[in-house]
Amino acid sequence: MDVKATAKTVRHTPRKVRLVLDTIRGKDVNEALAILKFTPNHAAADVAKVVKSAAANAVHNNGLQEEALYVKACYADEGMTLKRWMPRAKGRAAQILKRTSHITVVVSDER
Questions:
Q1: Can you list the positions of beta strands (E) in the chain?
Q2: CA atoms of 2 and 22, how far apart (whole Å)
C-alpha cells in the first residue's frame, strides 16, 4: 500500500532538493534516514522530516510495519517564488527570485 506525505513551500530550491532526493529513492526508510542524517546539505533536514512523516502516516493511519517500508517515490515540485529587489548602480534594481519547493515522499511495503 502506498502512503505519502508532503511539505509545502519549503525555502529551498527544487533543484537542490532533488539532489538529496536522488540519494534516498528506493532505499529502506531507516537506511534513508541514516543517509539524510549525514548528508551535508541544508535541504536534507527538511527531506528527513517528510520521510519521517510518511513513515508515521503508514504506521498510524494504515497499520503497516515500519521495518517493511521503503521509499517508493520522492520528488520536489516548484512552489511559489518570492520576488525581491536588490539596489544596483545608477538607480537601477535587480530582481532576486527566492524559490520554494513542494517535497513529496511516497513509502510502500510492497516491492
A1: 2-10, 70-87, 93-108
A2: 19
- Give the three cell numbers for residue 104: 513529496
Burial, 110: exposed, middle or buried (Cβ in 10 Å; 0-12, 13-18, 19+)? exposed
Phi (first) and psi of residue 110, to 5 degrees: -105, 120
pLDDT for 39: 95
Q: Does domain 2-108 have CATH number 3.30.300.130?
A: no
Residue type, 108: S
- Structural domain spans, the chain: 2-108
With contact defined as beta carbons under 8 Å apart, do 41 and 20 qualify?
A: yes
Is pLDDT of 110 > 90?
no
Distance CA 98, CA 12 (A): 8
- Sequence-distant (6+) residues with CB within 8 A of 80 are 9, 100
Alpha-carbon distances, residue 109 vs 30, 66, 98, 101 (angstroms)? 13, 9, 37, 26
